[in-house]
Design goal:
Blueprint (H helix, E strand, L loop, with lengths): L3 E2 L5 E2 L1 E4 L6 H31 L6 H18 L2 H9 L2 E4 H34 L4 H4 L2 H27 L8 E2 L6 H7 L5 H34 L4 H29 L7 H15 L1 H12 L2 H16 L1
């Protein structure tokens, strides 16, 4: 399928994305801001992937999953931010094929991240609660299986949601009041009863979003309980600091995505503007913050980067 229908039976070949704002001054400010964020996202995640590949000391389960997260964040951000930057310079039209592709890719990568964050929380849970059995439990084959399940589950969920969303006939003009082709926006544009489609999307969200988020917070709860029992106040403070930073980023990501994908669709224009702001928090911000929160402050990563830098400078 390369087009979708409107309520009058005519086919839609392209859409107009309204973006975040029509104010030319605000557009320039946002363009500069999001360009810097995108560059930082690419640099931070590329640095982590490079360090993980080049330094054998980082060939551990934790950095294996962090490498997956960095690759995921580069792809996720690149599927959305370049289009957003183009919209801030000119009023951007997008073909139906490009819109459908963006919807599928972004949704697939976002779903993968939901599950991957839960896997990473489980990895930290095993490392802290069962340190002596960590290497046995988190074996290489088990880690590869977990990572594969993350990518496959995100792709499957996205295929399901995208297919049923794009079957809906749309009302009115070919205008998307958003900066990205996203499922909730299309549901608001539908001219038919969307109850069945909403139930399908909600069911998928329970498996790909709600269950992983609950699992993540249960893992961190067990981690915190274990940290409290640490006798050394310095070690306890350091562990709490790391755990708190992880919790902040997963809370921002899960809460904003849940607020978009696990609530009834509203066609209120004020909600649409609010939804665009919420979407920024789970599409633009986490890919930039993840490498800073999870790894670039880490001593092992810093040592790996110093080793790589010395190798290239002196050789």
């Amino acid at each position: 399928m390369d087009r979708t229908k409107m309520d009058n039976g005519s086919l839609i070949a392209e859409f107009l994305l309204l973006g975040l704002t029509e104010d030319p001054v605000v557009k320039i400010i946002l363009f500069a801001l999001f360009l810097v964020i995108y560059i930082l996202t690419l640099i931070g995640n590329t640095i982590l992937i490079t360090a993980w590949i080049c330094d054998s000391r980082l060939h551990t389960p934790m950095y294996f999953f962090l490498g997956n997260l960095s690759l995921l964040d580069i792809c996720f951000s690149s599927s959305i931010v370049p289009y957003m930057l183009a919209q801030l310079l000119v009023r951007k039209t997008i073909s139906f094929n490009a819109c459908a592709s963006q919807m599928y890719i972004a949704l697939s990568l976002g779903g993968t991240e939901c599950v991957l964050l839960a896997v990473m929380a489980y990895d930290r849970y095993v490392a802290i609660v069962y340190p002596l059995r960590y290497r046995v439990i988190m074996s290489t084959s088990f880690c590869i299986t977990l990572a594969s399940c993350c990518w496959l589950s995100g792709s499957a969920m996205s295929l399901l949601d995208t297919f049923f969303t794009l079957q809906l006939p749309l009302c009115g003009a070919k205008i998307i009041n958003n900066f990205v082709c996203e499922v909730p926006t299309f549901l608001k544009m539908a001219c038919v009863d969307i109850f069945a489609t909403e139930m399908i999307i909600l069911s998928a969200a329970v498996f790909i979003l709600l269950i992983p988020s609950v699992f993540t917070f249960i893992s961190y709860t067990q981690i915190i309980i274990t940290i409290v029992r640490i006798r050394s106040s310095e070690a306890r403070l350091k562990a709490f600091s790391t755990c708190a930073s992880h919790l902040i980023i997963v809370t921002i990501f899960y809460s904003t995505v849940i607020s978009m994908y696990m609530r009834p669709v509203s066609k209120n224009s004020k909600n649409e503007n609010q939804d665009k702001m919420i979407a920024v928090f789970y599409t633009v911000t986490p890919p930039m913050l993840n490498p800073m929160i999870y790894s670039l402050r880490n001593k092992d990563v810093k040592m790996a980067l110093q080793k790589i830098t010395r190798r290239h400078i002196f050789h």
